[in-house]
TrEMBL record:
<dbReference type="InterPro" id="IPR047742">
    <property type="entry name" value="PA4642-like"/>
</dbReference>
<protein>
    <recommendedName>
        <fullName>Aminopeptidase</fullName>
    </recommendedName>
</protein>
């Protein structure tokens, strides 16, 4: 055995501090906006209701919901590609996120 195993935790409640900690995610590639990277990592790690809370903290901090990745897409573009992400996409829309095609209008 190479190290201690982490116990499986199901239904763990995330504190506001834990949710807010995702605001400080930094991009590994300078072509990706720091705002996009923080949203992507939060989307990948959080349940839908925690992601909704994160978006509130994100927008309160003055962050950009429409930051672009290296392909010129927003997080809403990315999330909308996934079949089971409707709750995430709806949360993004409620907070003012747009698809890249909508930004050009």
């Amino acid at each position: 055995m190479s190290g201690p195993e982490q116990p499986s935790v199901i239904g763990e409640e995330w504190s506001d501090e834990r949710v807010k900690s995702w605001l400080f995610t930094t991009p590994w590639d300078r072509k990706i906006s720091a705002d996009y990277q923080a949203l992507l990592k939060a989307y990948q790690a959080m349940r839908a209701h925690d992601f909704e809370r994160f978006l509130g903290f994100f927008t309160e901090a003055g962050r950009d919901l429409n930051g672009l990745n290296d392909e010129g897409l927003t997080i809403l573009d990315r999330v909308s590609e996934h079949r089971r992400s409707q709750a995430y996409a709806e949360s993004l829309r409620r907070h003012g996120a747009k698809k890249a095609s909508e930004l050009a209008e």
